[in-house]
């Protein structure tokens, strides 16, 4: 008997180590080369740099998806820590994002265990740890990065309040008060929070309500102060969103488009093809979305089936509970997740603005828990293990193969090579930074050049970020650094336009040096004599 216990303990440890190794592999493999650093990250890096240099301490965070609404500053404040530790190198941000994702993996297991049972926790953690789509977003450090963490913790605390442990409302006010300062997608929980608080009102003391509300308002105090100091900017923006729906400047989307993005996210959660390009998979280049994987039909069917099992479990809980020895807390867990999916469906129906896949980051941990529950239900069948084990192994292996065979156009490695090359060529000379190309030119280059080469006198990003500079130059340097990250997968008209722009630059300047790193061409140009005389 002792030998059996030792053997079981040994196998449990080996299994746990394997899951951890899988999670580590998906989050740290090729991490230095596949750092996603674009315009949003550049914006946040400039905000953080100004905080740490003492130039500006903001009361707000970033603009929320061009709504005119500003988020609270909690994420920007917290981002200052890794920025400081790694001297502004984006690698530090990517490392912290991957570490946070590991924490979420363990939370998926812990919360799955507490809300359901140990088996559901294990299945859910395996799914979340091995999803290539999840790990792709988990490598990115920007304001939506903490959303899976806050979604899980907020949902779990809501579950405890539903159980009657109302003191957890205080902790919920902390997690949710921070979450709404990261991304507005977390507002999906708001109707649920209001309903559960209302349903538990008889058990809530005035003291708990006052403490919870005070904590939440205290966390929002910077943005409240900003409102009073800046003529209620957010309030006016919210009014425009709710009232002026016919504004021509607003990008609207059809319900069909939003539904397709939601369904695609379900499929991609399980499957991204081999030899994918993560630059395309980000889906943030509208012109290249047609090249992106939109989810395998089988993977979509599997996820929809798991949602069906979830709903079936709720409607047939009495029969299921007798068979699997489930308690009422499991029923509350299932109801909570069903509500979350219902609210997501309502969001897709009624939110008529543009929707991106990362808007559903809050849902990803709950997708893992849903699939984990479905696998547990199947596992409980007489021959269930013969379905669950092959499915799980195939899922892990397929995602690992996709990870090892995929690439990243305009990768961070290529960007770093460009930076090293330019620094060696300029030898400390002042320069202007220009870039041609479509969305690939918004690759965070202005900040990267400032950090690794030297502050450019002028750049093509000045129209976006000059309000964040405190070292503007009026000089016209003799050198121009021209980047050409043209994506030739674009249509011919777009490629032709940017090629013409490149020829204009090259014909008006003297070329000193040129080189190509991956998909990025770089030219070191000397400004023409005419330009220098005009500047004088």
From TrEMBL:
Bilayer topology annotation: Multi-pass membrane protein
Recorded GO molecular functions are: pentosyltransferase activity
Q: At the top level of its lineage, which domain of life is listed? A: Bacteria
Provide a GO biological process annotation: lipopolysaccharide biosynthetic process
Please give the GO cellular component terms listed in this UniProt entry.
Answer: plasma membrane
Q: Where in the cell is it found?
A: Cell membrane
Q: Which InterPro entries match?
A: LipidA_mod_glycosyltrf_83 (IPR050297), RgtA/B/C-like (IPR038731)
**Record's keyword annotation contains Signal:** no
**Spans traversing the lipid bilayer:** 12-29, 91-111, 120-137, 143-162, 169-198, 204-226, 301-318, 330-351, 358-380, 386-410
- What Pfam families does the database record attribute to this sequence? PMT_2
**Which keywords does the record carry?**
Cell membrane, Glycosyltransferase, Membrane, Transferase, Transmembrane, Transmembrane helix
**Domain Glycosyltransferase RgtA/B/C/D-like, chain residue ranges per copy:** 73-225
Protein name listed in UniProt: Glycosyltransferase RgtA/B/C/D-like domain-containing protein
């Amino acid at each position: 008997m002792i030998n059996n216990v030792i053997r079981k303990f040994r196998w449990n440890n080996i299994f746990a180590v394997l899951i951890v190794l899988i999670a580590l592999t998906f989050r740290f493999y090729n991490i230095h080369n596949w750092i996603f650093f674009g315009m949003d990250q550049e914006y946040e890096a400039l905000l953080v740099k100004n905080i740490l240099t003492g130039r500006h301490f903001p009361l707000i965070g970033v603009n929320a998806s061009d709504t005119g609404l500003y988020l609270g500053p909690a994420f920007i404040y917290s981002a200052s820590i890794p920025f400081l530790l790694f001297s502004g190198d984006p690698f530090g941000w990517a490392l912290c994002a991957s570490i946070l994702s590991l924490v979420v993996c363990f939370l998926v297991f812990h919360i799955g265990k507490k809300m359901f049972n140990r088996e559901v926790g294990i299945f859910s953690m395996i799914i979340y740890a091995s999803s290539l789509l999840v790990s792709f977003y988990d490598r990115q450090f920007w304001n939506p990065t903490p959303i899976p963490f806050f979604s899980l913790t907020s949902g779990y605390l809501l579950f405890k309040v539903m159980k009657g442990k109302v003191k957890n409302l205080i902790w919920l006010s902390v997690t949710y008060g921070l979450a709404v300062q990261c991304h507005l997608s977390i507002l999906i929980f708001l109707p649920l929070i209001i309903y559960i608080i209302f349903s538990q009102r008889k058990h809530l003391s005035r003291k708990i309500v006052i403490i919870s509300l005070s904590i939440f308002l205290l966390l929002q105090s910077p943005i409240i102060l900003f409102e009073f100091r800046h003529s209620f900017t957010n309030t006016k923006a919210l009014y425009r969103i709710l009232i002026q729906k016919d504004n021509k400047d607003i990008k609207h989307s059809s319900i069909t488009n939003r539904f397709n993005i939601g369904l695609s996210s379900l499929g991609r959660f399980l499957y991204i093809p081999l030899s994918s390009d993560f630059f395309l998979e980000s889906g943030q280049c509208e012109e290249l979305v047609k090249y992106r994987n939109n989810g395998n039909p089988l993977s979509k069917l599997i996820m929809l089936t798991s949602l069906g099992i979830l709903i079936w479990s709720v409607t047939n809980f009495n029969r299921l509970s007798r068979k699997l020895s489930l308690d009422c807390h499991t029923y509350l867990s299932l109801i909570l997740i069903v509500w979350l999916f219902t609210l997501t469906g309502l969001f897709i129906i009624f939110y008529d603005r543009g929707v991106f896949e990362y808007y559903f980051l809050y849902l990803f941990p709950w997708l893992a828990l849903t699939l984990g529950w479905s696998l547990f239900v199947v596992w409980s069948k007489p021959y269930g293990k013969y379905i669950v084990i092959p499915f799980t192994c195939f899922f892990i292996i397929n995602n690992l193969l996709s990870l090892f065979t995929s690439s990243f156009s305009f990768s961070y490695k290529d960007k770093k090579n460009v930076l090293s090359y330019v620094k060696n060529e300029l030898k400390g000379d002042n320069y202007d930074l220009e870039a041609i190309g479509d969305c690939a030119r918004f690759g965070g280059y202005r900040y990267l050049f400032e950090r690794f080469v030297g502050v450019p006198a002028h750049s093509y990003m000045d129209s976006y970020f000059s309000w964040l500079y405190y070292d503007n130059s009026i000089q016209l340097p003799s050198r121009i650094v021209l980047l050409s990250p043209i994506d030739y997968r674009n249509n011919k008209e777009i490629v032709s336009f940017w090629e013409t722009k490149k020829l204009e630059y090259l014909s008006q300047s003297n070329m000193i040096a040129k080189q190509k790193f991956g998909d990025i061409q770089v030219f070191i140009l000397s400004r023409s004599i005419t330009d220098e005389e005009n500047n004088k």
